[in-house]
Specification:
Elements: H1 5-28, H2 54-70, H3 75-98, H4 113-123, H5 131-154
Helix pairs in contact: 1-2, 1-3, 1-4, 1-5, 2-3, 3-4, 4-5
C-alpha cells in the first residue's frame, strides 16, 4: 500500500485542480458568471451557488492539464483529474445547497472528499492505483486542503479559513 512518486504527483494535480479556481477568483477580484446563472430549484435554493463559475472550471482544467504534461504524466490524465475534481466540487456544492447551506460555507468532509475521490477513482483506470492507495491519497488531500486553505486565507486568497 505504499505510495509511489507517481501517486504523489497525482495528489499534486488534484491539489492544483482544486486550488486553481480559488486563485483565479482572487486574482480577478470578482466571482465571474455563476454556472447556475442564479437558477433555483423547487427547494428554493440555488442549484450550485454564486462561487461556481465557468472561469473556475476552465482554470482547473487548464492548470491540471498543463501541470500533468509538464510533469510527464500526459495531458490526458491531467484533463481527467481536472474534470473529475470539478465534478466532485460541483457535486459537493449541489448537496450543500440541498442542505440549505450558503455558498462558500464549510461542510467538513463534504467539501474535501468528493474533490479528491472523484479524480483519484477516475485516475485508477489510467495509472496503477489501488483502492487502498486512493483512500490514503484522499486522507492526505483532506489534511493538506485544510492546511492550505488556512494559508490561502492568511494570504487573502480566500475569504474564510477552513
Amino acid at each position: 500500500m505504499w505510495l509511489t512518486h507517481e501517486h504523489l504527483l497525482l495528489l499534486l494535480l488534484v491539489l492544483l485542480a482544486n486550488g486553481a479556481p480559488v486563485l483565479t477568483s482572487a486574482l480577478q477580484h470578482n466571482e465571474g458568471r455563476p454556472l447556475d446563472r442564479g437558477r433555483r430549484l423547487r427547494d428554493g435554493y440555488r442549484l450550485l451557488g454564486e462561487t461556481k463559475t465557468l472561469r473556475g472550471v476552465a482554470a482547473a482544467l487548464l492548470v491540471s492539464t498543463l501541470a500533468a504534461w509538464v510533469l510527464g504524466l500526459g495531458w490526458g490524465l491531467g484533463l481527467v483529474i481536472g474534470a473529475c475534481a470539478m465534478l466532485g466540487d460541483l457535486f459537493s456544492s449541489f448537496l450543500k445547497r440541498r442542505l440549505g447551506m450558503p455558498s462558500s460555507s464549510m461542510a467538513l468532509g463534504l467539501d474535501q472528499i468528493p474533490e479528491a475521490l472523484f479524480p483519484l477513482l477516475a485516475s485508477s483506470y489510467l495509472v496503477e492505483l489501488g483502492l487502498a492507495q486512493v483512500g490514503l491519497l484522499v486522507v492526505l488531500f483532506f489534511v493538506l486542503e485544510l492546511l492550505l486553505s488556512r494559508v490561502a486565507f492568511h494570504l487573502n486568497l480566500r475569504r474564510r479559513p477552513y
